[in-house]
Structure formats: structure tokens, C-alpha cells
Design brief:
The complex is a heterodimer of chains A (about 250) and B (about 270). Chain A is α/β, with parallel strands linked by helices and about 250 residues long. Chain A has a domain at about 1-75 and about 195-255: P-loop containing nucleotide triphosphate hydrolases (Rossmann fold). Chain A is about 35% helix and about 25% strand. Chain A contains nine helices and nine strands. Chain A has helices at about 45-55, 95, 100-105, 110-120, 140-150, 170-185, 195-200, 230, 235-250, and strands at about 5-15, 20-30, 35-40, 60-65, 80, 155-160, 190-195, 205-210, 215-220. Chain A has a six-stranded mixed sheet, sandwiched between helices. In chain A, strands 2-1-4 form a three-stranded antiparallel sheet, with helices on one face. In chain A, a hairpin with a 4-residue loop joins strand 1 (about 5-15) and strand 2 (about 20-30). In chain A, helix 4 runs antiparallel to helix 5. The radius of gyration of chain A is 18 Å and the shape is globular. The model of chain A has no long low-confidence stretch (mean pLDDT about 85). Chain B is mainly α and about 270 residues long. Chain B folds into two domains: about 10-50; about 65-265, MetI-like (MetI-like fold, Orthogonal Bundle), CATH 1.10.3720. The radius of gyration of chain B is 25 Å and the shape is flat. Chain B starts with 10 loop residues before the first helix and ends with a helix. The mean pLDDT of chain B is about 90. Classes of the chains: A alpha/beta (about 250), B mainly alpha (about 270). The interface of A and B includes residues 57, 80, 82 and 88 of A.
């Protein structure tokens, strides 16, 4: 295994007219290829900032972010999945999924389109291909958003609480789906969540952040038995780890 | 899941459909009734002498007047002149206003610099510029088209700019995370997302461009429907005023109808 992403002493300040907000303080961590990593932390601690930095939407105030050992981000290698699906109403499901390919105009466009087509078939959305997103349910929309993220074949997936807008049952189902899709496609994922059980059931590694200014408080390797996130929730170690992270987060206040 | 179109409706559903049908019948009936009653009453009151048709004209006299105008060719020539002025003004204002809105959206500084001027220009009654316009471009078609453009352009820019600005920020971030440049953000997101607002701008401009061209013709013209109206007023020929106004109504409605066809096509 080799590392795909590395944060080295990253600090970030938000500038506003009246204030300077110290969001991230000396963040250090790394992610290996095909690893599923979650970041948990108290709300407002700068989890989303961390993803924006990784995606290159923000630049660190100091420190370095290395992606594949390079000090620059490549949008075609990073797929960002947001809290909301942000599907374009005027485009069909297919046109939404191929949006990234349309923007990036990769050299192997035909292959990527074929791959997107295959993803749709594989994950049961093919018959909805020509429909507009408004006729899909919340869970399906989120699945379309995931396939849109995967269609550009990124090396690293950034997931910003992608399930938080869904109701509980759909959330568990989509969680299972997303997990198996990411594992099947051999992708690396960085998930931001405030839901401890979600982080535990999906991740190989959990990074616990402190409250603002956030720094890495703990790194946990859950190593739970079970194949799917749902099965992992049944694991005997689950409650112990849950309590451990819970106390780490609540000690903050 | 595709809904199977089923045909064996329940009694309640049949009742519901029947009521819908009845409601729409009532609406259409009274719509026509209002028009017929208005025209009929107008005609009747002038026939029995309650209204003086010298001042109010009457439907039959308007029709006679239109026939006269049609026969001697003035109907077509005057209508075409006004239609031409309106369409040219409409097109210039819509395109130019849209382009200005894009420029303002593109550059935040430019937008902030010009924002107060646009607000002032919007509240200025453009007709006040009439005499200046004639001094600048001379009396005639140019002045009329310019009046039309001035009336439509500010509202076009303002509406489109606010539509561009109200695009969901998260969707912009999504495109940025895919590596999109500003031009792609405009083309793939901002332009299609603001289409409904563009169609309402077109609808507003249909009305406003007619205001512009008729206003322009009031100020300075030797031909056109606005000219006929002013001329008719000056020689106390209310039939001519009313006939021209009727033709104006038909033309403006026709233009509005074309825009709504476009809207229907877009909605599909």
C-alpha cells in the first residue's frame, strides 16, 4: 500500500471583515490507496474545510497537502460528493452523470462514457437513464450523484456527509450501497461525518478531530468483523469503540 | 416504475373528472361572455344614443374603419412600420441587456461599480429622455427604436443578473471541484438554470417594447400605428384611434403568443 494523500502541518484561517477564524491547526495525517477513511469531529470544527482544501477549492494558509506526492490537486483525480446531490434538473440522469466527463474532456472520453454506462447498469439505474432527476427518490438521487462522482474515474473520493439529507432507513441502505460500490471499484475514500456509527461501520481508519481550531486528536482503526456496514454494526467491538469516540468528542465541551 | 395508464376509473374519480370539465367550461364560457357583453353593450349604448359615438366610437364603426384602412393599404403599411420598430427594439434590447448581464456576472468589481447606476436608470422614466434622443439620433425610426431599447434594456439586465446570481452556490462548487472554468460554469449551469427567468424577460419585453415604439411614435413619427392614434386624436377621428388600438392589441397578443409557444417548447 502506498499513500495517496498527505496533510503536512496544514493550518487554515478564514478571513472575514471583522474577524479571522482559526479553523485548522497543524493537521497531519495520510491516506493509503484503497483505504476508507472517515473524519469525525464536533460540529463546526472544520471538517468540510478539510475536504475543500483537499479538492483544491481552498488553499492552505500554511503547510502542505500532497496528492500522489505532488503539491497540487488534479480535479480529474479527485471526486467530490456533497451533502446534497446538486443534480441539474434540466438534464437527464445520463446527462447528469456524464457532466464531469463533459467538463474535463479527457482523452479517453469514449472509454469513460462506456464505463459510466456500465456503472448505471451495474447499480440498477439504467432504466432511469433518460428521466429527469425530479422523478427520482432521495436515495436514488444520491446514488446518481455517487455515479456522477465515479464517472470521471477519480483516484480519491471525497464524501461530505453524503447521507445526512436522507431518512434513516434510506440512509442505511444507501450507506451499504455506497460502501460496496466504492470497495468494488477499488477507490480510496475520505468521508466526513458527524455520525459516529456511520464512521465506524464504513471505515478502515477514523480520524478524530478536536473542536476549533481543529487538530487530529486520535486515529482509530476499527477493524470490525462483517462484510457490509450493516453487518459491522453487529460487531461486538462496535459499542466499545462507539463509546470511546463519543467520550473523545464530548470531552471537548 | 412507469405508471400503467389504467382505464377503469372508480365512480369518485369519474365524478372528479366531470367536475373538472364543468369548471373549465364555466371559465371559458364567462371569458367569452365578458367580451361579448362588453362589445354588445358598447354597440347598443351608442346605437340608442346613450353614448356619443363621436367620443366613444363603436364596435361597428371600428370594423368599418379597419375595412377602409385595409382597402387603401394603410393598415398593412402602418402596422408593418410599428411592428418593425418594435421587433428591432425588442431584439437589440434583449440581446444587449443579456450580454451586459453576463459581463456584470462575470466580474464582481465591475458589478459593484455599476450596481447603483443600474438602480437609478431603472427608476428613471425613460420617456423623459425623449427630447434628448431626438437631438442625438434625429427624428424618425432611429429615435423610436432607441426609445424602445432604452425602455427594455435595463429591466432585461436587472432580471437576468439577479437570475444569474441566484444560481445555487453548491452547484457552482460542484463544477469547480470537477475543474470547470468560469466559461464552463456559465454555459453548463448558469445559462440553463436561468432559462425560466429569460422566458419571463421575453414576456415582459414583449409588452415593454410596444410601449417603447408607440411612445417613440407619439414623440416623432410620420407613420405607424402610434402616429395614426395621435393623428386620429388631433382630427377628432376617434374611430381611427380605436381601430389602430385594436390592431395594436392583436399584434401585441400575437407576439406574446409566440413567446408562450417558445415557453411550452422549452418546458417539454
Amino acid at each position: 500500500m502506498n499513500e495517496i494523500l498527505k496533510f503536512k502541518d496544514v493550518k487554515y484561517f478564514y478571513q472575514t471583515k471583522t474577524d479571522e477564524i482559526f479553523a485548522l491547526n497543524n493537521i497531519n495525517f495520510q491516506i493509503e490507496r484503497e483505504e476508507f477513511v472517515s473524519i469525525v469531529g464536533p460540529s463546526g470544527c472544520g471538517k468540510t474545510t478539510l475536504l475543500s482544501l483537499t479538492a483544491g477549492l481552498l488553499k492552505p494558509s500554511s503547510g502542505e497537502i500532497l496528492f500522489e506526492e505532488q503539491n497540487k490537486t488534479d480535479p480529474s483525480k479527485i471526486g467530490y460528493m456533497f451533502q446534497r446531490d446538486y443534480l441539474f434538473d434540466w438534464r437527464s440522469v445520463w446527462k447528469n452523470i456524464t457532466l464531469g466527463i463533459e467538463i474535463q474532456k479527457p482523452k479517453d472520453k469514449e472509454e469513460k462514457l462506456a464505463k459510466a454506462d456500465e456503472l448505471l447498469k451495474k447499480y440498477g439505474l439504467y432504466s432511469f437513464k433518460d428521466l429527469k432527476p425530479r422523478s427520482l427518490s432521495g436515495g436514488m438521487r444520491q446514488r446518481v450523484a455517487l455515479i456522477r462522482t465515479l464517472a470521471v474515474e477519480p483516484e480519491l473520493l471525497l464524501l461530505d456527509e453524503p447521507f445526512s439529507a436522507l431518512d434513516f432507513q434510506t440512509r442505511i441502505e444507501v450507506c451499504d450501497d455506497v460502501y460496496s460500490i466504492i470497495k468494488n471499484e477499488h477507490k480510496t475514500a475520505l468521508l466526513v461525518t458527524h455520525d459516529i456509527s456511520e464512521a465506524l461501520s464504513m471505515s478502515d481508519k477514523i480520524i478524530v478531530l478536536s473542536s476549533r481550531p481543529a487538530s487530529v486528536k486520535d486515529v482509530i482503526y476499527p477493524n470490525l468483523s462483517g462484510k457490509t456496514p450493516l453487518e459491522k454494526r453487529e460487531s461486538t467491538k462496535f459499542p466499545t469503540l462507539f463509546n470511546k469516540i463519543w467520550s473523545e468528542l464530548t470531552n471537548e465541551k | 416504475m412507469k405508471n400503467e395508464k389504467h382505464t377503469n376509473f372508480s365512480v369518485a374519480h369519474k365524478k372528479y373528472l366531470k367536475r373538472l370539465k364543468k369548471d373549465s367550461f364555466i371559465i371559458i364560457f364567462f371569458r367569452i361572455f365578458v367580451l361579448v357583453a362588453f362589445i354588445g353593450l358598447w354597440e347598443l349604448l351608442t346605437q340608442i344614443g346613450v353614448l356619443d359615438s363621436f367620443f366613444t366610437s363603436s364596435p361597428s364603426r371600428i370594423i368599418k374603419q379597419i375595412i377602409v384602412l385595409a382597402k387603401n393599404g394603410t393598415l398593412v403599411s402602418h402596422s408593418l412600420i410599428t411592428l418593425y420598430e418594435t421587433l428591432v427594439g425588442f431584439a437589440i434590447a434583449t440581446i444587449l441587456g443579456y450580454v451586459i448581464a453576463i459581463l456584470l456576472w462575470w466580474n464582481e468589481k465591475v458589478r459593484k461599480i455599476f450596481e447603483p447606476y443600474i438602480v437609478v436608470l431603472n427608476s428613471l422614466p425613460k420617456i423623459a429622455l425623449g427630447p434628448v434622443i431626438i437631438l442625438w439620433v434625429g427624428a424618425g425610426t432611429k429615435a423610436i427604436v432607441l426609445m424602445c431599447v432604452l425602455i427594455c434594456i435595463v429591466i432585461t439586465t436587472m432580471t437576468m443578473l439577479s437570475a444569474f446570481m441566484s444560481v445555487e452556490n453548491g452547484q457552482i462548487l460542484l463544477l469547480k471541484s470537477m475543474g470547470a472554468n468560469k466559461f464552463q460554469i456559465f454555459l453548463k449551469l448558469v445559462l440553463p438554470a436561468s432559462m425560466p427567468d429569460f422566458i419571463s424577460v421575453l414576456k415582459i419585453n414583449v409588452g415593454m417594447s410596444w410601449v417603447g415604439s408607440i411612445m417613440g411614435e407619439y414623440l416623432t413619427s410620420k407613420a405607424g400605428l402610434g402616429y395614426l392614434i395621435v393623428y386620429g386624436g388631433q382630427i377628432f377621428k376617434i374611430d381611427l384611434v380605436m381601430a389602430s388600438t385594436t390592431i395594436l392589441c392583436v399584434l401585441a397578443f400575437g407576439m406574446y403568443y409566440l413567446v408562450s409557444l417558445l415557453e411550452r417548447k422549452y418546458r417539454k
